[in-house]
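Notes to self after the Tuesday call (sharing in case useful).
The group wants a holo model before anyone commits to mutagenesis around the pocket. I volunteered. Ligand is zinc ion. Logging inputs and output together so the record is complete.
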Amino acid sequence: MEFTEKALVLKVGRFREADIWLRLFFAGRGMVTAFAFGGSRSTRRFCGCLDQLVLGTFRVGSNRRGTYKVLEEGTLLHAFPGLRSDPRKLGLVAHCLKFVEAVQVGSQGAQAVFDLLLETLGTLEKSEVGAELLPLLFKAKLTFEQGLKPDLTLCVRCGRPAWDHAGADHEPTQYACASSNLGFSVERGGVVCTSCCDLSFDAQDEPFSIGAVRTLEWIGESRPADWPRLTLAPEMRRQLGRVVDRFVAYHLGLRWENGMYRKI
Ligand SMILES: [Zn+2]
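Result:
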């Protein structure tokens, strides 16, 4: 079965003398591993395409027995020069690519993840997003788009409204207050109200402020183009970082360890 489709190259490796394997993320089908035989010699069929962080149109077939995919041809669309020339941004991009690879998105959720990834790369190429914020934003947004969205309105223990919505009508990008009178239950997947926290604080729950709730809500509604205007106080960043990391570990089974995502 042959197909031609737009993809981003997540990872590239060499094997034998002139052959290359690639892990590609296709807009319509998610991650595919394919072999480019003679790839390091053929500039005509793969002109500039066999490199990490290349957006291209790729024609993919398979070997005669149908046991593996073969890259037949590639056309370069964009190579993100603004990211390649900046080692700091390249480090952030590598983190995002590793996360996409680890999540192993199926064909159903592929288009949303593909769009999110390209918009993230485009935003990062044009502007600055804090190094401590980008992985957090990208991870949270991708997880939410996989249908794993935390409940931020009703308390996950008592079912009542978890916080006073009327009294918190500000842009979350302006929130400085991180005093934690709420909680976040990773196992139950949402916010715990003040009364439930006062009644019995579960040590498994994370302390969580209203500002952090509003920021998580904002992340769910935002697009990567909005991210450069977000600034967070250190304590709020810590709260969100802990919650998002534990949420990803619990619901996607992935933990960041020694520079890579490990299945747990
Ligand atoms: Zn409650």
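Two things stood out.
The pocket of zinc ion is lined by residues 155, 157-158, 160, 192-193, 195-196 (CB under 6 Å).
The chain has a mean pLDDT of 90.
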